[in-house]
Each structure stands twice: as C-alpha cells, then as structure tokens.
Amino acid sequence: MSIVMRTKRYAFLIHRWTGVGMCLLMALWFVSGIIMLFIGYPKLTPWERLGALPVIEDRACCITPDMALSRSKAAADVKEIVLTSIRNQPHYLLREGSGDYTVVDAISGNVQPKADVTSALAGARAFIPHESAEYVASIHEDRWTHSRSLDPHRPLHVIQMNDPASTRVYVSSSTGQVVLDVPNAERLWNYVGAWLHWLYMLRSQAVDPAWTWSVIVISAIGMVTAFTGILNGIWRWRFARPYKNGSKSPFREVTMRWHHILGLVFGAILFTWIFSGLMSMNPVGIFDAKGARPDIKSYQGGSPAVMRLQLNPVEALSLLKANGFLTRELEWRVMNGKPFLLARDGKAETRLVLQTGNKYVVTDRWPEEELMKAAARLIPAPVLSHQKLEAYDAYYYKRGEASMYGANERRLPALRIVYGDPGKTWVHLDVRTGQVELSMDQSQRLGRWFFNLLHSWDLPAMLNSKWLRELTIALLSLGGLLLSATGLIIAFRRISKWQAKSRLG
Fold first, then answer.
1. Is residue 401 within 8 Å of residue 40, measured between CB atoms?
2. Which residues in 357-420 belong to E strands, given as ranges?
3. What is the residue-averaged pLDDT of the chain?
4. Rounded to whole angstroms, how far apart are CA atoms 462 and 222?
5. Cis? peptide before 155, omega within 30° of 0
6. What are the Cα distances from residue 449, in Å, to 87, 212, 432, 443, 467?
7. How far apart are CA 69 and CA 95, in angstroms?
8. What's the pLDDT band for 505 if we cut at 50, 70, 90?
9. pTM tops 0.85, yes or no
10. DSSP letters spanning 320-343
C-alpha cells in the first residue's frame, strides 16, 4: 500500500472512531452556542448593582473617611475606600491589601460583623424590594459562582426571592452586598447554554486544572475529528468526473451523503470554532503576558489610606448634587499622587471631584496631560505613542450583556498608550475614571485574534450590525448542528453493528 493510500486510510479510521465519541458533544456545543448568543452566563453588571442602590443623601450622611479608617485594624494597609449602601443604609467599605473587607456604618461609625442569615436576607430584600425571601444555604462555590472576582466574598449566602422572575440572589458574607443575581429562566437556559458549552459539569472550583486540561484534550480531539473529516470529504468528492450514480459524492445512503456534503460546507467553520475554543483555554500559558504588567501602585503614586481630599462626604455629595449628579457610590482614589473622588450614579455614569487650587470642581473626565503623566509610571519603559480613541476598534470595544465580557464598562473616549517594553504593551485608560481598563502585550493581542475573533466574530463592524452577526452565527451553527446530527446517526449505526458482531463473536 502506498504512503498516500495509507495516509488516507488512517485519516478515514481516525475520523470514524474519534467521530463516534465527538459527534454528540459537537452537537451539544452548537446548541449551547446558539443559546449563548442571547443568554449569557449569570453576572451582576455595574448598572444592575448601582441601579438597585439608593441615592446617598447629603443631609443624612456621614462620618468622614478618617473616622471610618480609625475603626480598621489595618488602616495603613487599606487600598480602597468606598462609600456605598448596604441594606439601603450608607456604609464604608475598606478593602485591605490582603483583599479582606472592613465594613463601617457611615452613620454610627460602628464596625459591622460578617453578614449572617438575617443581614443577608435584609440585603436581598433591599436589592429586590417589596418581595419576600427565603434563605437557601451558605455555599463556598456552585455552578454559577466560579468567578475569581467573588473570592473575597466567600462563603456566599444564597437567597431565593419570591419575585415574578424567581430570582436567586447571592450575598457576600464579607460585606452583606448582593454580588450576583440569577433569575430562574436564566438558570434554566444556562443549563443548556454556557454551563453545557463550557463543560462546567466537570468543574468543581474557580481554579480547576482537571477541568482545564479536560477541555483542552477534548477540544484537541475535536480538532482532529474535524480536520480528518475535511480531508476525507475533499478526497472523496469528485470535482471533475461524477461517480457512476451521477453524484459527486460516493455515498448512496442519504445520511452518509448529507454528512459528506455538510462536512464540505461547514467543516471549516466547525474546525475554526473548536480551535478558537481551545485557544480560549490559553494552553500552557501561550497567551500570557510575557513582560512587565502595569504597576498600579506606581500609577496611583499613593494610597487613599494616606492621602485623601480634605472634603467631607456631605460637602462632596452636595457639590455633586449641585452639578446635577445623584450619587449612589463615592470612592476615594489617588492617581499620580493626586487624590480625587470618583462618583457613580444609578446608570454607572461617573463624575470626578478634583482639587484645583483652593477649590473643588466636578468634571466628567481627566485632562489628557494628567493621564499621560500618570501613564509614564505604569510600565518601566518609554512611552512611544498615545492615541485618544473616540470610537471602538479591533482591540478596545464593548460587548453585549450576553457575552462573558458583558459587564465590562469600556467607556469612550479612552486613551491608548503604546510602550517600548519588550512585550510592546498597549494600555487603555478610561478617560472618565482614570483607571486602567485594558492592558495587552504582543502575546495577548495575538490571543485576541486566535480566540475572540475566530470564536465570537467581535470586530466592531460585526458588533455594530448586531442582528446580522447573530443571524449569521446562528445559521452557521445550525449547519454545524446538522453536520453533527448526521454524524451522530452514523455513529449510532456503527456502534450498533459493533455490538451485534460482539454478541455473535
């Protein structure tokens, strides 16, 4: 047997037997992928969280941050000071360098204990008012709470609300805040959506190497199945001279013939999606940042525990209100050694309170020169260039809420700074908050193309034509589903024949 014939035979056998194991999973991937276009993995977006908070009234508030810090056992190590509402009452959240929280009642000045069942229920009722609630359990992690961002809040109190949506609410034991809400319909759709698509039935914790490598290996096998199928399909298709039956496919049986044709039409997209799904797992850290990461401490140039605007909360809230801004959260921050206040309203819109000379001013964005001074401290390398983005592009863009990135605010304008470090890092600064919104070195930008583009088709032009993008992906997914379904029928027949021979043998 020649090398060519031997190669074709091995490709045929590999496709046949790996396909027996993969066709069902591929079909489920396509079904779940279509659902994920419209219903994403549960998340609490900033606008949902802030929209559920009351406006902080200046007449009813508050002790100063200095007084709140005096209640902390690690005041010098506090890296975040936030005035927010918990159970509809103003509280300070003091986050230490370790990630632990100290919660201080902003009226009485008393340190609050860890959230118990009673306070968790009260927090859930404040989030969804006028509805009764039932305590379910205290959990460390479940199928909806794998996100690492929830680690400081574990264990989580699970509350079942009796609202029309039958929402399940997760409350932080550290702060008493609602950190996730999952309506019943979202839970049910996710069982056949993201939870199935990401094989979360195999995942038991936030960092789970067994799950990671299971997905990598399964995806690699899927790629082999798809690739050998494409090769077999091309080799068996008569492009010039039809077979004796008049068809360009050698298969007379309907399912085999349609599997062949569908494979030629949709095999490439199947391979691309499996490949990009594999890339999403960042195998062996291939897309990890290779150089220095942004030095946030240096960028800040100080801690709010040490340097703060000498403006008490009542004056700050009154000043913001006089400028037409109804504050629901107020945060003390520092950038390049300059303290400031960041205020947020119920729609996650922001305002800055800055000190200019002897007065305080409210503005909606940082001056570009101030951002550039701070940016020079982010990466230990020269700044090669910078660009103000007034529109989204291929690297800095916003996704719909169904996406796994749906909670990323990604405001415009943004400032892109290009550094001359070995990793050729790009940093995107949010002009309205001053925070680092996105950092990507050369490896991470490559991962953007190999995963995000190939898997989600998320170029701005495609995202702007939302219905066309979703319709196209859905139709291609249906084609892939039909391809997988015909493979499933063929696999069932193959297994049935094998079992029959085993019984006879």
1. yes
2. 359-363, 383-389, 414-419
3. 91
4. 27
5. yes
6. 43, 21, 28, 10, 22
7. 10
8. low
9. yes
10. HHHTT---SEEEEEEETTEEEEEE
